[in-house]
Amino acid sequence: MKVDKFSEEVIRAMIDDDHVRAHRARGLSPDRPAMRGTAQNPDVYFQARETVNSFYEAIPEIVQGQMDKMAGLVGRQYHLFDYVGAPDAERVVVLMGSGCETAEETINYLVERGEKVGMVKVRLYRPFSLEHFVAALPATTKIVGVLDRTKEPGSLGEPLYLDVMSCVSEHFANIGKVAPRVIGGRYGLSSKEFTPSMVKGVFDEMAKAAPKNHFTIGIIDDVTHTSLDYDLDFNIEPNNVVRAVFWGLGSDGTVGANKNSIKIIGEETDNYAQGYFVYDSKKAGARTISHLRFGPKPIHSTYLIQQANFIAVHQVNFLERYNVLDTAVDGTIFLLNSPFKADEVWDNLPRSIQETIIAKHIKFYMIDAHTVARELNLGARTNTIMQTCFFAISGVLPQEEAITQIKKAIYKSYGKRGEAVVRQNYAAVDATLANLHEIKVPSAATSKIELPPTVREDAPDFVQNITAKMMAGMGDFLPVSAMPIDGTYPTGTTQWEKRNLALEVPVWDTDLCIQCGKCVLVCPHAVIRSKMYDSGLLADAPDTFKHTEARWKGLQEQVYTLQVAVEDCTGCRLCVEVCPVKDKSNVSRKAINMEAQPPIREAESKNWDFFLKLPDIEAANAELQFNNVKNVQLLQPLFEFSGACAGCGETPYLKLLSQLFGDRAVIANATGCSSIYGGNLPTTPWSKNSAGRGPAWSNSLFEDNAEFGLGMRMTLDKQVLYARELVSRFRNEIGEELADGLLNANQSDSAAVEAQRQRVAELKAKVTSTDSAMKDLLSLADVLVRKNVWIVGGDGWAYDIGFGGLDHVLASGRNINIVVLDTEVYSNTGGQASKSTPIGAVAKFAMGGKATHKKDLGMIAMSYGNVYVAQVAMGANDAQVVKAFIEAEAHDGPSIIIAYSHCIAHGIDMAKGLTQQRLAVETGHWLLYRYNPSLRIESKNPLQLDCKAPKLPLRDYLYNENRYRMLVQSNPEAAAAFLIQAQDGVKAHWHKYEQLAAQDS
Amino acid sequence: MNLTTNYMGLTLKNPIVPSASPLSENVDNICRMEDAGAAAVVIYSLFEEQIMWQSQQLDHYLSYGTNSFAEALNYFPEMDTFKIGPEGYLELIHKAKMVTEIPIIGSLNGVSTGGWIDYAKKIEQAGADALELNIYYIPTDIHMSGTEVEQMYLNVVRDVKQSISIPIAVKVSPYFSATANMMHRLAEAGANGLVLFNRFYQPDFDLENLDVVPHLVLSNSSEMRLPLRWVAILYDKVAADFAITSGVHSHEDVIKGLMAGAKVTMLASELLRHGIPRIGEILAGMTDWMEQYEYQSVAQMQGSMSQKNVAEPAAFERANYMKVLHSWRPDPTGQLI
Q: pLDDT band at residue A238, thresholds of 50, 70 and 90?
């Protein structure tokens, strides 16, 4: 980093006010009326389009003029095409954007070694100026390699390639000379690495007699063989650059500290600095890898560090999961945050790590940062401690100066947040050095700790061969042939990724538990499950497997187990908070209590495996009604171990959906948190039951997801129509009784759906597929079993960007179900205000507090009259949530459930998320109701309020949340005014609903 | 009739002072107190611990979940400033001084030595006429002796006294083994005033949820007996002005407090329960009473019924206690008489 910002004066000087005024004068104004956007007919449209030509022709010179003007002002000269490399280059690549930096670095290296290579950097892509391009291209060029960072399926080449190709061929035809050869290739899609070795690989290919055209670089294409080979070990990074790689967790503050280090070095020293941060796709326990470079010269390496001379691992369990020392060079400094003492740490390293440390002569340091942080009340945030360690041992700055600078940076970063925080971080800096130890490295590896396989041996082939490689960070090396050709992936893969995130996990107390199922219902990651089963099945149970008599009327002879998947738990504590039972002799104990995970991991993993083998209760079970929380706990979740935040408020609703209807659900999921934790590789949480059924899921965009789901419904409806027609047509072949059964089946609940499945199975067994129409019937038979379509998304989708489509779908009258996971803010993109954001809440784009009330989406939906609408909050009334889902699914028409979802973007203690939900209802911020159009048939008011009149002041709810409190702390007057408006709004809102619910039908 | 009193060198127009309570959280209420006749106002307490907690809480929630996920590197907008230090409190004192003519007394509860001194200085700079040290400390550590606890109090008073020049009062708890000696030592350490006594809010149990819950109970007149006794005993023995602050609800309570030897009587529960105008009513009741019994001045009655001045000094000691106990013996029907 050494960013030279343009001054205001320079920017001002670049703007010609005459042009600004001319632009203004062209604006629409009733004072000089004119119109634009006329609908043009074929007679004039063509000519009208051609009016632009002279402007496009003029643009290159104008842009060059502006570039020259800027050069006059700041001394930085750009051209439409800038050439770098050997003046007499024979092989020239053409590319644009950040890849040019890596290419230039490589070209300089190669030219120094006598290679005749170069590059044309494209500064103005279009209008593409032929004259300027050929002027930039050395006359000695024999071959041009055009690199595009995009893919145009079906095209003869990518856009830049086609432009360059046309340009070269036109120009050389015009001047009557032989044109250099032009080839094109693709690189770096979706930020795929683009390294010097890849650049060299392209140049090497260009040197061949018959170079490959339409190539790819950076992947292994073993299907259409487009990829070029390249030397992975080719390294050109200069030795005077500090190359540091930090492995951390999002929650430990590693990235924040590294950003500070970059600022310190970039701003306070003569060194240049660069940082790039790689995040995984999980929200809970997210891994971060920071790549930092510092050096005396500007840094042009726009690729990840391949040869690190400093490696820090801030979480010791990474040693078992990733090859963290892979990039270490000989003599690298290795810093480990480890819970072990200095004299124990070596023996607790995996053997392969020990071997690498010895082989590469690595200097090994350790600190127990978590203990230091705990002693200083810093919680899990070890950032300042690890940052201090880095400066202490990396030698980037003299130690004393480094400490001064770190403290300055702390003040800059945290000063606004109050002295206490600053003091706490200063204390962390001061306490660090005494706890930092250099470990003497023995001459031989002695550890017996071997790295466990990424996934268990019993994982399916796809998971073993593909998913596991992505999990291990080796996805770059998966060839094209390993990829599903149409993006279709198997579901249920999160079960193979044991992340062991939680230091503490819930442990069941069999004696205290009343088997209410609340913990099972709220667990955001589906790690707490219960089963009721025959005691005879316990014969092979592991010694520590817990069970007790079932507390179900009439089923007391059955056995009940509440089992925790300790390796999948995130330790969020929602379960403990929701547990209604307290030990009469010690009220701090509940029926589930948090206990340390490591000591029980092994035993509980075995218990979990045994638990999974116990039979699941079918939703079609005739003895139990699955319309209440207690019974629903027994249904297998088909949404498990997602990457959602610890304590997520959204996922319990999706899990419930999967328990109740997962075996027959098709889900259209709008982009947002739910599409990320629901569908981000490597592993995905939607899963299937023992019969192989489970939700089928696809993601679509904000702007069309509702229509996407409607399309699913219409497809199914059409298929059902055709299938029924065929059943009628083949009535004789099928048999009358079966045909009638298939056509007249009442599939209102799971038992009835199961009965229809049996009929379909009978149908498939009975008919043979000789006739074409009969083949159609067999291919469509499964749709005769009722499927339901669920359209899922957050408030950013439903209230805002996707609202038009949502409204269209609500108005369609079709049998679709919509779930709005309402966090009242765009959570996935970092807390931007949506139209669901309440008045007075601080969000991005509502920094001074949102000025308007939240949109009443439920009321809009109710206005159609035929739409089932429910507003729910699991923490306030879980029974109502279950009822709402069942009624919504049963409603033969559109339904919408608006579900209050507490969220990390509210700035709350996530463990108290359910308490906040309750307070949202008790203060009247969030009303619980169900609007069931079918009640009209019974001459009842369709609107039923499921909550009482607000009984607490709104502030009791609001000021537990940072989104409201930070306004109190930054602008108390505005906060006070908003509070009054919000409280008035609550009152008016309640009265409106109260009146509507009180009306006679 | 002369109602003036001198409290820690401040001349007050009467002996009625609202004590620290949420009522003084805004300047309008402070004006209303002055209008109702309050002679001075003790502003609500600035808690160092709360400032620290707010700072840590803000930091926690602004940092929580950040830099973990590429699309959401943080969840809140960057604010220019936060008013989470003592600024709001100091501003209130400053404003109160601007719009009232009565003395404004700051109140401070510190945690660290640095905090006590730093905030005391800031309160002085904001314009407070005096500072009340609200030493709210529950010695739960079984290894901490009474001597250590007492020394901690004395150190705070000494440190603050050395740092500021406005008068300081110490609001103390009644839980000292040797109350008289402790009051004396506090005065020696620099306390100009002693405010008797701090009411610690005692937690309650919620039997429905088996939770420990905060439960604010407002005082009643009977609670005044304890400070009344101690002020009466210590009057003229300890070199500090006394204020009585528990259970003052009526003009009779005020008069009793003065007669025991208090320079001022402070009230909060009564105002929280019945509103700020109660100050005027109590003041009127007091003047009526003084007229009726022909008292010329407050000074005349101050200490008039202190242990030093009563005919039976022993009445404040053990004999009195025995007498009270005996007064509760049951009658033959089992009823208390």
A: confident
